[in-house]
């Protein structure tokens, strides 16, 4: 077992066919108001709760020191593990347990069946013993070798984020070619989006496509979801991607397939901001004059609203007028999208061709 970090998340090629409906233009750049509309549909109590049992100081999104009523994850120190297991036995809606500092010997962990377990300890042998015990019991387990609980990695394990790469558009303003297959720095444009999401730390990466050529370009780098209704608009692709997210995923970062300069640091920065205590359900890249642009992280508590959108309404129509829903954060990378041959020419100039070496 590799105990130097979290258990690896592997992306296996998976293809699904969906029949979504509606339209949501996440990529739209229309102006949005900061004036709040009446009847907000979201409140902080809707988010996934992180129940911290004991004296741990973990400033993570959804943290509470009181036993929550709805679905939640639980974080405890090792000395409180017996109490945590009693809580798990009585609460079927406790989805995951994180233990910081492990007791000397693993207890009976039958109560964890069907849930996720996260282990934090600086002792490799103790980690191995606990991990092997959990695996034998059929428990999904991740681990962090550290004497102190590292916030970023623990928050990532408690609040997994998936990525949806939207790659089913027609590219009508890019005549004569499938724009997502255009080469940028030696690889198809869509591969840059996939790698940014994967290397940025997303627990699941899904590509929604309609073209066989785009499917082939993915080449096993992500899960595949075929959208047979791509012509109805971006909503069908977004909703297809949301439907493909695994149950443990608490938010989805929406990545446009034609933004090759976004980069993994952008994705990581957005997820880091979203996981912080007090964050809003949506987090996007800030632009000038109070505007924002994708990529955008959308918490699970917003997904019902996204799935209900019809016609040309988009995510901006949900977020506009509701400043309580959106955080805009500065992030590295460039969110330029490629819609026209002129856009592509500008991007290509940033990657000069390497001159072949002359042989002596």
What attributes does this structure have?
22% strand; disordered N terminus; elongated; six-stranded parallel β-sheet; single chain; 360 residues; alpha/beta; Spore Coat Polysaccharide Biosynthesis Protein SpsA, Chain A; 10 helices; eight-stranded mixed β-sheet
What are the SSEs and their pairings?
Blueprint: E1 15-18, E2 49-53, E3 63-64, E4 72-77, H1 81-90, E5 94-100, E6 116-121, H2 124-136, E7 140-145, H3 151-158, E8 161-167, E9 183-184, E10 187-188, H4 189-199, E11 204-209, H5 212-218, E12 223-227, H6 234-244, E13 251-256, H7 264-275, E14 282-286, E15 292-299, H8 303-308, H9 315-319, E16 326-329, H10 341-348
Parallel strand pairs: 1-12, 2-3, 2-4, 4-5, 5-6, 6-7, 8-11, 8-13, 11-12, 14-16
Antiparallel strand pairs: 9-10, 13-15, 14-15
Helix pairs in contact: 4-7
């Amino acid at each position: 077992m590799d105990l130097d970090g979290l258990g690896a998340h592997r992306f296996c090629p998976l293809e699904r066919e969906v029949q979504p409906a509606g339209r949501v233009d996440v990529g739209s750049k229309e102006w949005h108001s900061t004036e709040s509309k009446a009847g907000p549909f979201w409140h902080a109590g809707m988010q996934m709760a992180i129940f911290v049992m004991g004296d741990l100081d973990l400033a993570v999104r959804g943290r509470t020191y009181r036993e929550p009523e709805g679905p939640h994850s639980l974080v405890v120190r090792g000395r409180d593990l017996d109490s945590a297991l009693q809580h798990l036995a009585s609460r079927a809606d406790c989805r995951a347990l994180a233990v910081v500092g492990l007791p000397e010997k693993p207890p009976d962990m039958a109560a964890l069946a069907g849930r996720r377990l996260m282990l934090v300890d600086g002792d490799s042998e103790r980690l191995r013993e606990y991990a092997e015990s959990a695996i034998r019991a059929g428990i999904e387990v991740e681990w962090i070798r550290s004497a102190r609980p590292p916030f970023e990695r623990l928050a990532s394990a408690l609040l997994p984020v998936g990525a949806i790469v939207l790659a089913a558009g027609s590219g009508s303003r890019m005549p004569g070619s499938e724009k997502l297959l255009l080469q940028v720095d030696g690889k198809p444009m869509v591969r840059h989006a996939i790698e940014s999401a994967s290397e940025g730390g997303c627990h699941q990466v899904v590509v929604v496509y309609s073209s066989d050529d785009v499917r082939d370009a993915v080449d096993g780098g992500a899960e595949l979801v075929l959208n047979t209704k791509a012509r109805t608009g971006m909503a069908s692709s977004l909703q297809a991607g949301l439907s493909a997210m695994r149950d443990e995923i608490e938010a989805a970062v929406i990545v446009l397939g034609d933004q090759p300069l976004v980069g993994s640091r952008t994705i990581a920065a957005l997820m880091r901001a979203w996981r912080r205590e007090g964050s809003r359900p949506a987090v996007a890249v800030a632009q000038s004059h109070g505007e924002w642009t994708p990529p955008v992280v959308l918490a699970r508590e917003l997904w019902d609203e996204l799935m209900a959108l019809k016609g040309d309404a988009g995510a901006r129509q949900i977020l506009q007028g509701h400043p309580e829903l959106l955080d805009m954060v500065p992030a590295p990378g460039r969110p330029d999208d490629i819609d026209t041959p002129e856009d592509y020419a500008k991007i290509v100039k940033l990657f000069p061709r390497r001159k072949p070496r002359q042989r002596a």
